[in-house]
Amino acid sequence: xxxxxxxxxxxxxxxxxxxxxxxxxxxxxxxxxxxxxxxxxxxxxxxxxxxxxxxxxxxxxxxxxxxxxxxxxxxxxxxxxxxxxxxxxxxxxxxxxxxxxxxxxxxxxxxxxxxxxxxxxxxxxxxxxxxxxxxxxxxxxxxxxxxxxxxxxxxxxxxxxxxxxxxxxxxxxxxxxxxxxxxxxxxxxxxxxxxxxxxxxxxxxxxxxxxxxxxxxxxxxxxxxxxxxxxxxxxxxxxxxxxxxxxxxxxxxxxxxxxxxxxxxxxxxxxxxxxxxxxxxxxxxxxxxxxxxxxxxxxxxxxxxxxxxxxxxxxxxxxxxxxxxxxxxxxxxxxxxxxxxxxxxxxxxxxxxxxxxxxxxxxxxxxxxxxxxxxxxxxxxxxxxxxxxxxxx
Amino acid sequence: xxxxxxxxxxxxxxxxxxxxxxxxxxxxxxxxxxxxxxxxxxxxxxxxxxxxxxxxxxxxxxxxxxxxxxxxxxxxxxxxxxxxxxxxxxxxxxxxxxxxxxxxxxxxxxxxxxxxxxxxxxxxxxxxxxxxxxxxxxxxxxxxxxxxxxxxxxxxxxxxxxxxxxxxxxxxxxxxxxxxxxxxxxxxxxxxxxxxxxxxxxxxxxxxxxxxxxxxxx
Lengths: 393, 218
Fold this sequence. Notes:
The complex is a heterodimer. Chain A has two domains: 2-47 and 299-392, no CATH class; 56-208 and 249-290, no CATH class. Chain A has eleven helices and 16 strands. Chain A has helices spanning 2-14, 16-52, 64-73, 85-93, 118-123, 143-149, 196-203, 270-278, 292-335, 337-346, 350-392; strands at residues 56-60, 82-83, 96-107, 110-115, 127-130, 138-141, 156-158, 174-181, 192-195, 206-207, 221-224, 229-231, 250-251, 259-260, 262-267, 287-290. In chain A, a hairpin with a 4-residue loop joins strand 11 (221-224) and strand 12 (229-231). Chain B is an alpha/beta fold. Chain B has one domain: Rossmann fold (3-Layer(aba) Sandwich). Chain B is built from six helices and nine strands. Chain B has a five-stranded parallel β-sheet with strand order 6-7-8-3-9, with helices on both faces. Chain B is globular, with a radius of gyration of 17 Å. Classes of the chains: A alpha+beta, B alpha/beta. At the A-B interface, helix 1 and helix 10 of A face helix 2 and helix 3 of B.
């Protein structure tokens, strides 16, 4: 049999293009379903693991999927905003602990997540370098953000404007990096965490500027009365919160009317959770409460339904590939008829021909298997990032 | 060496009929077989080699009655006792010259490939003047070199009988004479018997004997 392999090896290595084509066909058709299965399993694991650890999410009525994806994975689709009153409403029920979140802005491509300190406890996030958020204008970055942007405590990070053409809108805020989180292998690694108030400062709801009561430049004053001073747009707004100007930062209006994208509700027990869910069932209700696990299960169900269709397509393509490979071997056998006749004449049996063909097929299948294994191994190694890229962000 | 008696072979569909009443070739004899195209010269070689089975008659090669052997033993006998030289050389493009010469050893269990065989193959190739081309692919050789490699392949198992079917048919006159010189010398050196089918009447004087198929009425 070794001699058959030797001759078969010589044949397949001589006919490089034919061999490469066959190996590529078999490799791809084997790799495709395996890698798909691998990625879907990984996506199920990633999506579910975070969802099952988040009891309830409250947000504006609309797409529950957008709400969950934005709250859990800081997805790009911003759900309809709600206000801080929603958080107060839950706190008042004494049924759950509300953790308001405002996921809207970005800093160099990474989501800025406005939260309260409860979020870190809830997710079990620990500071690897530096310290926790303490004052306005500070941020704590996830491990991957720190690595990709080469950030460490003491560095600065500027928020990105939502639109280049929004000149009168949101100013970039230069934030001070005070901490880097430990790696959590979740979306938190890719986020920039700020206090909710800092997020509102980014939006312009809170701001700091020159003291209008003390300025003498009349071009900065629009209207001055005894109780009120209106400034012109020429008034200098601070784009960085420092110790010197921190006192000048202030918020106008009622904080409970300030926007948040969602809030995570942590019921004190199962019963409280059920009661809380019941309070959002009314038709007139403008907010929804969702169980992320159910929403993600629905999403996965759809993904797996699509996967079933894909599996069927792949099965048909695989069958076509197998038939094509058989055809190639059959045609090759016909083309090699003369060679086979010569071998017969010299004195070999039909079994020798079968062995030679079997050895050729085995070499091609083995090469495909090795190549496929390497590719699957590579996909397995990057599946975490790949899933984040393809399914989550 | 070869003893054919009352041999009959026919294809019913085409009406081809070969009838050889008697054919005897002595050991170490070099015999040429001539005859018109389609008269059955190649068929006779195939019958003697045991590739075809006669409808009637007897074929003996050495002490063995070829048509009494079963398929497997006939193949083993052929590969160990007979060497084939073909008109189109029939070398395998994907093997180098040395692997082509060693090919019979790799496709049967009846021959054992060891270092001494490889050494003998190299020596044989050197004798044939292609010792420096052993690593080349068969396709890279000239026609003459290809036939030399094919002769090496036929001679390597040290067969008692060489069956040559138009061995010089695809060669130019210079190459033809050179190849025949080499073939005859090798056969003499190895003490083999040669039965060669040829159309080339210029070569006939080199043989000990010529059998004309006309004598069989074909």
